[in-house]
């Protein structure tokens, strides 16, 4: 039998005419046009310097090849792939490498690689940096900036629940990230949830895993079951959906991070007392058997969750047909109202990104000095860098 020849890796970086923003192909003209684009983003001095530093590093990367990576450790798994912390030997850079195994035809994988090209153009302080993508040995590799604080779902597991002031900074970053994707690239995220909001010890908060490749989304459709719990009612019903759907997902994520557990079905007064340590108003505590918890979830951070697991169709039915979750009264009225506006079931009545950006909760959060880096590092046991972001100005 003839030995099967190992396929050549398919690349999307760099290309000879200098159209990519990394590798040896980047030209002076390209850098000049990039600087003009950065000027349009209204960045502060620190954000501009950090983006420029990343893009300068990216130029050293050159062609990405499987043999050039050394695996350091696994960072997580989800969305049909596994993410590893890796060292890229030729450049000396530490990266996050997502490996997605797909049994697909060559024409489809080529299309996915082409569609991922857009990620080279996504340069924002609120979007995880992209080094390149390639195909090798049945796997698509997406190489990204390594965020040493991991994702907010990991922080949530350590913290139990996340303080309102911290969530204010998270809300600003998510809105600005979604606005950037929509305004500059006409992209919807499609998968906003705590595990797709990454953070680092410099106090940066960035979105990852957004839906830039329609073909990749289609090819991975069967692995998206767990993500459906964050989908908006209109998306679950199969009707037309827009960036308003991302806003629902953000609102749901904020409630989850604030109370320490997925908010559907909502906690009753007894569970709220257990979470916050004193009596609170909530749904009337039932003497009957506890409400089921969403499928595939370990339950709350406050001891073993005795609720039986909820079937996926029950959860989706609840999202579509029952009232949306709310924040308990322990939180500020501004935060409660902000979340309520994100979780209006009719997308036409739900607040849009521009309305949310001028909401009192966001204005108040912008004005507050919050040591996000300090909170993160103490929560997950990270050392702060020598030049930490003591005051997170988003």
Automatic annotation (TrEMBL):
- State the UniProt keywords alphabetically: ATP-binding, Cytoplasm, Cytoskeleton, Kinase, Nucleotide-binding, Nucleus, Phosphoprotein, Serine/threonine-protein kinase, Transferase, Tyrosine-protein kinase
* Subcellular location as annotated: Cytoplasm, Cytoskeleton, Microtubule organizing center, Centrosome; Cytoplasm, Cytoskeleton, Microtubule organizing center, Spindle pole body; Nucleus
- Report the SUPFAM superfamilies cross-referenced here: Protein kinase-like (PK-like)
Where does the source fall among the domains of life? Eukaryota
Q: Which reaction does it catalyse?
A: L-seryl-[protein] + ATP = O-phospho-L-seryl-[protein] + ADP + H(+); L-tyrosyl-[protein] + ATP = O-phospho-L-tyrosyl-[protein] + ADP + H(+); L-threonyl-[protein] + ATP = O-phospho-L-threonyl-[protein] + ADP + H(+)
Region annotation Disordered: residue ranges? 1-27, 281-306
Could you tell me which PROSITE patterns the record lists for this protein?
PROTEIN_KINASE_ATP, PROTEIN_KINASE_DOM, PROTEIN_KINASE_ST
Q: Which family does it belong to?
A: Belongs to the protein kinase superfamily. STE Ser/Thr protein kinase family. MAP kinase kinase subfamily.
> Per its record, how is this protein called by name?
Dual specificity mitogen-activated protein kinase kinase 1
